[in-house]
Write a structure and sequence with these properties.
alpha/beta
């Protein structure tokens, strides 16, 4: 309650997860994949006048902040314009979660995977010298980086948010083939529209 009162999360105070300021200082090898300008602008736009939805945010946070060695995918659905992106942006900002906003220019599986991998490297100070994405094994880097981040339990939960998942190019079994099995302590939250 005290953290909520001052508007900070435990992860923010402990400097766990991402920071847009840190993204600005990223080496050139990661800078392009981080999408600093686009993502910081989207997060700021969605959170500028955000109000309400506290119950939903508490439910999402409760689902990933547990004491058990579990991992899972969570799918948040709703009609277009109902506020899914705003809720996710608020949680991303407050909880410092790794994230990707699928948008007009950021919808390919390659862009999404590379963005998430680059963020994991920066957020958890991971060393990785292999390609972040290959056509032959698109999720190899993502699997390895999620495992490396979750190996240290002080990083838990390791959360990845993909907002607008259904707008990605081939979100099924093609270019955006996400890992089937997640390491303990890892949670992937996706939002998608329900037909109107």
């Amino acid at each position: 309650l005290a953290l909520k009162a001052v508007g900070h999360s435990y992860r923010e105070l402990c400097q766990l997860g991402f920071s847009y300021a840190d993204w600005e200082a990223a080496p050139p090898s990661l800078a392009a994949a981080l999408r600093y300008a686009e993502f910081s602008s989207i997060t700021n736009n969605h959170t500028r006048s955000f109000v309400g939805r506290e119950k939903l945010m508490q439910q999402v946070c409760h689902s990933v902040n547990n004491e058990f060695d579990i991992s899972c995918y969570t799918i948040i659905t709703g009609l277009p314009g109902i506020g899914k992106s705003a809720v996710m942006a608020q949680l991303v900002q407050r909880e410092r979660w790794t994230h990707h906003y699928v948008g007009e220019y950021l919808r390919s599986g390659k862009q999404i995977i590379e963005s998430i991998c680059a963020q994991l490297i920066r957020a958890y100070d991971l060393w990785y010298d292999k390609p972040l994405y290959t056509e032959r094994d698109p999720c190899r880097a993502l699997n390895e980086l999620l495992t490396a981040a979750a190996r240290d339990r002080s990083n838990w939960p390791v959360v990845v948010v993909i907002d607008g998942f259904d707008e990605a190019d081939d979100p099924g079994l093609g270019a955006l083939n996400l890992p089937q099995n997640l390491p303990p302590g890892v949670f992937i939250i996706v939002t998608r529209k329900t037909p109107g």
